[in-house]
Amino acid sequence: MQDEQNTLHAAFTAHQRGDYALAEEQYKAILEINKQSIAALTNYGVLLAQLKRSAKARAHFEAALKITPNDVGLLNNLGRLTLDQGDIEAAEKLFRKAFARNKTDVTTLGHIGLIKSCLSDLADAEKWYRRALEIDESADWVSYNLSVNLLAQGRFDEGWPLHEARFSKRWDARPVNAPELPFPPWRGENLVGKSILVIGEQGLGDEIQTVRYAASLAAAGASKVTWACKPTLVSLFASIGEVDFLPLSPGMSVNRHDYWVLSMSLPYRFHTAVSTIPETVNPYLRAPTIRTGVIPQSDTLLKIGLVWKGSKQLKNDINRSASLVDFKLLLELSSIKAVHFFSLQKGEGESDAREADGRGELVDLSGELHDFANTAALINQLDLIITVDTAVAHLAGALGKPVWIMLPHFGTDWRWMTKSETSALYPSARLFRQPRPGRDWSSVIAQMRRELISRPGA
């Protein structure tokens, strides 16, 4: 028994420091001796879930639940895994079962709130989040989820302060790490004559969305604005004046500034409301004038760019991404209307684009998409962009290009708000929402097809 406890401790320690291979080896060793070790089954299940080996993780959680069917922690773990796999109904049942056994468990309360929020039942979700925070106000992951809920409702004054929880050091799984710099963070102090370093964060779309605040910082009187962004964005952002853009990299060296700020904190520090989203320049990004013979110059042909997949790194990608097969009804239009389709797909989905190009269904532009400046130049040569919720949606909106954005019913990102067909962030955007939960894009595609068919000149 003592040997099992020692091995379990060693496995957990290895797990915590990120030595997953050693942790797995030791969890297996315990289970070979004791197949009913709840601790080994549970922690090995957590490890397997982290490694995206969902089927095996589920098997370990379920094996543990057979031994202790009322264990709230296990029900929560299996519920989270089930939610990540996209089975919303089953996940909610597991969390409800956990809630029936413990009505004050913050993990349970927060996840029921998350499910309600992802189903766009924002009022009910808010109640669950606030109930969890009444029990533990230090639960920063709940504060962050509540902030997203409030922002989706347009309650920016309440949501932005809570959004700062995303980089709280009390939250081990925080999505953002604040930098360790020898100068202070900017909390809204007067910037006249001061220098400020902006650090881009999270996804490419987040950075494209927030770079509009570069003009706001300059207008606030900052003597120097330096913006560290993802390398693929530097050449695109270079069109913005009065700002120095640097490629962001781990451990990069930067000169001392008076302040630093994370890019997604800028809406908070500028007291942004829905009605005051900066539109000093609209569009606020400009594309380089790069021409390619791949896209014909024609006044009679409707040229449409397509993106159907995002990065699998996003937790809700299983719901927000589509497949090229889903676009079949649109692609058929090229044979009956003056419509031509072009793929702006990069990474996941490129092989599908190449195959479709070989069949003459669209033109694959992936070989031209070297960075976001190239992508912007190609977008400028198209008439319309149709995309799922990816960075290309933000890029097209920032360029002022007409863009139709396909939104999932489950887990719609907060920035697209609820119900509206238009976007406060991007006046050129049109939002097409799934009418019900599930990964069925047929009704969205059918609506877009009808509108393209009735479009004058198409």
UniProtKB/TrEMBL annotation:
Keywords per UniProt: TPR repeat
TPR repeat positions: 38-71, 72-105
Highest taxon, organism lineage: Bacteria
An example Gene Ontology molecular-function term: glycosyltransferase activity
UniProt xrefs under Gene3D superfamilies: Glycogen Phosphorylase B, Tetratricopeptide repeat domain
Pfam family, one: Glyco_transf_9
Source organism phylogeny: Bacteria, Pseudomonadati, Pseudomonadota, Betaproteobacteria, Burkholderiales
Entries under PANTHER family matching the protein: PROTEIN O-MANNOSYL-TRANSFERASE TMTC1, PTHR44809
Protein's name in the database: TPR protein
PROSITE patterns: TPR
Keyword Lipoprotein listed: no
SMART domains: TPR
Keyword Metal-binding: no
Source organism of the structure: Caballeronia sordidicola
